[in-house]
Amino acid sequence: MVEWITTDGLTDYRAAETWMEKRAAAIAAGDASECIWLVEHPPLYTGGTSAKAADLTDPDRFPVHTTKRGGQYTYHGPGQRVAYTLLDVGKRGHDVRLFVQQLEEWVISALAEFNIDGAIRDGRVGVWVERPDKPKMADGAVAEDKIAAIGIRLRKWISFHGISINVEPDLSHFDGIVPCGITDHGVTSLVDLGLPVCMDDVDVALRRSFDQVFGPLP
User: Fold this and answer.
1) Under the phi-then-psi rule, with left for phi > 0, alpha for psi from -120 to 50, and beta for the rest, what region is 79?
2) Cβ(184)–Cβ(92) below 8 Å
3) 179 or 113: whose pLDDT is higher?
């Protein structure tokens, strides 16, 4: 069984990394079950293994943490649900690309419970939503905003880090970075899209859609 843990309040980022490292090692050793850990962080920026210094446009605004997860710069803060996924990818297909696709499908399925059509775009990490209410792009395409980020790390085929969904964060906090290196698109949240959604609602949707996408450990 996958253990679900929800931590109230704001969780220190480095403390979260330490906890994940220990839990991942315990899962690999067979001493602990897989786990989904739901948290919120105080305002901060994290830089993944592909982060570019030029994309950190306001380095003094919030604490900046270098991390070994995949991806570039992202923001975490109050009103954003972070779901750390400590899962045995070795036993769940031994396929990293498939696992990332499952994470994407998980987010999209959870958003669908609020009638939000999330989508994946080539060359852009994360989950995106169309914004027909905004001016079109220079090429005439419908504007799109990012609503969820994905970044993982594997050790001994155990995953950690995971996903984040913007529920009701302060979207101006994203101004201090170029989120995931994307300059020509914005960010949004469930509340920004006009949905009166709270964190508990998102947690219920995540748990229900997780079972649909991942199922039990084989």
Assistant:
1) left
2) no
3) 113
- Which pLDDT score, from 0 to 100, does residue 130 have? 95
Cα-based distances in Å from 165 to 25, 79, 108, 119, 199? 26, 9, 10, 13, 10
Residue 44's H or E segment, with its range, is strand 44-47
Does the model's pTM come out above 0.90? yes
| Residue among 94, 103, 93 nearest 69 (CA) | 103
**pLDDT score at 183:** 65
199-213 vs 96-112: helix crossing angle, rounded to 10: 130
pLDDT band at residue 181 using 50, 70 and 90 as cut-offs: low
Tell me the two tokens of residue 145.
Answer: 């905003």
Q: How confident is the model at residue 82 (pLDDT cuts 50, 70, 90)?
A: very high
Instruction: Give the per-residue pLDDT at 18.
Output: 97
Please identify which of the residues 35, 51, 56, 180 carries the catalytic annotation. 180
DSSP label at 88?
Answer: B
Pair of tokens at residue 5? 């843990």
Nearest by Cα to 155 from 66, 26, 46, 45? 26
Q: What 3-state DSSP class applies to 118?
A: coil
| CA–CA dist 173, 175 (Å, integer) | 5
Q: How far is the C-alpha of 139 from the C-alpha of 126, rounded, in Å?
A: 22
Tokens at residue 36, please? 């989904």
State yes or no: is 180 an active-site residue.
yes
